[in-house]
C-alpha cells in the first residue's frame, strides 16, 4: 500500500514539470495554437493595430503633402458658355444682343516665396507627427503581444489547473474506495467515508469549475485573435528555458536608458511635443507678411450666332439728267455692292492661338492687418496644444520610470515566488506521503489527512502559477523596455 500511494504522489509531482496535459497538447480534433502562432495571428488581425497602421498611411500622406507644398500651385482651367441676351463680346468690344458661344482656357501658377517660414515649419511639424505615429504603431503592436501573452498565459495556467484538479479528483476517488473497504471490514468509522465522499465531490466540483474557467479564458483569447471560436483550439507551453529567464539583468539605470530609446509611447510623446512646437511656429507666421509669385497664361474664343457671311451696301446718288435744251431732271440712281461682313467671327485657330492670347505675371505682397483676431486665436490655440504636449511628455516619462521599477521588482519577486513555490511543493509532497502512511496505519484521523492533501493541492497550484508567471517575465520585461519583438519570442 505504501508503494502504491508513494507512486501516485510521485506521478502527481512529475506531472507539474511535464510540458502540459492532454488539453495543452491538443487532442485528435484540436488545432494546436502555439504561442508564436497566436502572437502572429493577433498582429495580423488586431483591429486596434490595423487602425493605427491606416492612420500611419494618412500621416505619411500629410507629410508628403507638406513637402510638396513648397512647390508652385499649378491649375489648368477651361470653360464653355453660351450667352443668350445682352453680353459683352470682347472680339467686337461692344455689348451685343443675341446668342453667343464663349470658350476659354488658361493655365495658372502661384508659388509662395516667403511666409514667415510657415511652410518650412509645417514640413517639420508633419515629419515629427509621422514619426510619432510610427512609434505609436510599434507600441500598439507591443500592446497586442503583451495582451496575447497575458491571455495565453492564463489559458496555459487554466489547463495546468485542470490537470491538477483532475488528478486530485482521481486521488480522492481512490481514497474514497479505500476508506469504503476499511468501513466494510470495520477498521474505519462510517463518518470517515461520508467526509471523504464530501471531499471527493468537492474535488470534482473544482475540476468542473476549472473547465468552465478554461472555456471563458479561451473564448477571450479567440476574441483577441479574431479566430473562429467554433474551432477546437489547444495551447502548448513555450519551450523557454526558465533558468535563462531567471538571469535577466534588472539594473534600473540601464533599463531606464533603454526604455527611453525604445518605448513607443514615450517616443510618441516626445515627437508629438516637437510637432506641436513647429506647429506653433507655423501658426505665428500667419501674422507675418507673405510674398508670392504668380503667372497666368490663357486664351479664348467667341462665336456670334446669326451673323451673315456677307453684307450688301446700297448707295443712292442723285444725277442731273439733261432732257432737252434748258431742261434737266434730277434722278435717283441706286447702286448695290456686296462685301464680306467684317463682323463674321474669326476662325477658332486664329482667335485661340493668336488674337485672344494673354499673359500675366508678377509678385503679390500680403500684409495681414486685421481679420477679426483669427490669426491670433489660431496661434494661441496651437500654443496651448504645445503646452499640453509638454505635459503629456512629462507624464509619459514618469509612467515609464514607474513601469521600469515595477517590472524589475516584480521580476525579482517572481523569481523568489517560484523558488518558494518549488520548496513548498517539495514539503507538501513529503507531508502528504507521510500523512497518507499514518492514516493507513490508523495513527492519524481523516481531518489531518485532508488538511495535508489540501495543502498539497494548493502547493501544486501555487507552483504552476509561479512557474508560468516567471516564464512570461521575459515578455513583461521586454514590454516595459519597449524592445518586445516577434522574433525574440521564437
From TrEMBL:
Nucleotide-binding recorded as keyword: no
GO cellular component: cell outer membrane; efflux pump complex
Annotated compartments: Cell outer membrane
Secretion signal, residue range per the UniProt entry: 1-24
Gene3D superfamilies found in the cross-reference section: Outer membrane efflux proteins (OEP)
A molecular function GO annotation: porin activity
Pfam families linked: OEP
Superkingdom to which the source organism belongs: Bacteria
Family assignment from sequence similarity: Belongs to the outer membrane factor (OMF) (TC 1.B.17) family.
Name used for this protein in its record: TolC family protein
Amino acid at each position: 500500500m505504501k508503494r502504491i500511494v508513494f507512486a501516485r504522489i510521485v506521478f502527481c509531482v512529475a506531472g507539474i514539470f511535464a510540458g502540459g496535459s492532454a488539453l495543452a497538447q491538443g487532442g485528435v480534433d484540436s488545432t494546436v495554437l502555439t504561442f508564436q502562432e497566436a502572437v502572429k495571428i493577433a498582429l495580423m488581425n488586431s483591429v486596434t493595430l490595423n487602425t493605427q497602421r491606416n492612420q500611419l498611411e494618412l500621416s505619411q500622406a500629410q507629410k508628403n503633402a507638406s513637402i510638396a507644398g513648397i512647390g508652385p500651385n499649378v491649375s489648368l482651367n477651361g470653360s464653355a458658355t453660351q450667352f443668350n441676351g445682352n453680353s459683352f463680346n470682347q472680339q467686337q468690344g461692344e455689348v451685343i444682343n443675341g446668342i453667343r458661344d464663349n470658350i476659354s482656357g488658361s493655365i495658372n501658377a502661384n508659388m509662395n516665396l516667403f511666409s514667415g517660414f510657415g511652410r518650412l515649419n509645417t514640413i517639420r511639424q508633419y515629419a515629427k507627427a509621422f514619426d510619432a505615429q510610427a512609434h505609436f504603431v510599434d507600441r500598439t503592436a507591443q500592446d497586442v503581444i503583451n495582451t496575447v501573452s497575458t491571455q495565453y498565459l492564463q489559458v496555459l495556467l487554466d489547463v495546468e489547473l485542470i490537470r491538477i484538479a483532475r488528478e486530485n479528483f482521481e486521488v480522492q476517488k481512490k481514497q474514497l474506495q479505500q476508506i469504503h473497504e476499511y468501513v466494510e471490514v470495520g477498521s474505519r468509522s462510517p463518518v470517515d467515508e461520508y467526509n471523504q465522499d464530501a471531499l471527493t465531490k468537492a474535488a470534482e466540483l473544482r475540476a468542473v469549475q476549472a473547465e468552465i474557467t478554461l472555456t471563458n479564458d479561451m473564448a477571450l483569447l479567440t476574441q483577441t485573435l479574431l479566430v473562429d471560436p467554433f474551432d477546437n483550439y489547444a495551447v502548448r507551453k513555450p519551450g523557454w528555458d526558465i533558468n535563462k529567464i531567471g538571469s535577466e539583468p534588472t539594473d534600473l539605470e540601464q533599463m531606464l536608458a533603454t526604455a527611453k530609446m525604445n518605448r513607443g509611447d514615450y517616443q510618441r510623446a516626445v515627437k508629438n511635443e516637437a510637432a506641436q512646437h513647429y506647429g506653433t511656429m507655423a501658426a505665428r507666421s500667419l501674422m507675418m507678411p507673405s510674398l508670392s509669385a504668380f503667372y497666368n497664361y490663357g486664351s479664348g474664343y467667341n462665336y456670334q450666332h446669326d451673323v451673315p457671311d456677307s453684307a450688301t451696301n446700297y448707295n443712292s446718288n442723285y444725277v442731273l439728267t439733261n432732257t432737252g435744251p434748258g431742261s434737266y431732271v434730277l434722278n435717283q440712281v441706286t447702286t448695290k455692292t456686296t462685301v464680306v461682313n467684317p463682323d463674321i467671327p474669326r476662325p477658332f485657330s486664329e482667335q485661340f492661338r493668336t488674337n485672344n492670347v494673354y499673359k500675366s505675371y508678377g509678385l503679390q505682397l500680403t500684409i495681414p492687418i486685421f481679420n477679426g483676431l483669427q490669426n491670433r486665436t489660431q496661434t494661441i490655440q496651437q500654443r496651448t496644444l504645445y503646452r499640453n504636449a509638454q505635459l503629456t511628455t512629462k507624464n509619459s516619462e514618469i509612467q515609464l520610470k514607474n513601469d521600469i521599477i515595477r517590472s524589475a521588482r516584480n521580476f525579482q519577486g517572481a523569481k523568489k515566488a517560484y523558488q518558494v513555490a518549488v520548496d513548498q511543493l517539495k514539503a507538501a509532497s513529503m507531508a502528504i506521503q507521510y500523512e497518507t502512511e499514518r492514516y493507513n496505519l490508523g495513527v492519524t484521523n481523516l481531518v489531518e489527512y485532508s488538511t495535508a492533501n489540501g495543502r498539497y493541492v494548493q502547493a501544486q497550484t501555487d507552483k504552476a502559477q509561479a512557474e508560468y508567471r516567471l516564464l512570461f517575465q521575459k515578455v513583461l520585461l521586454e514590454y516595459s523596455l519597449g524592445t518586445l519583438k516577434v522574433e525574440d519570442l521564437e
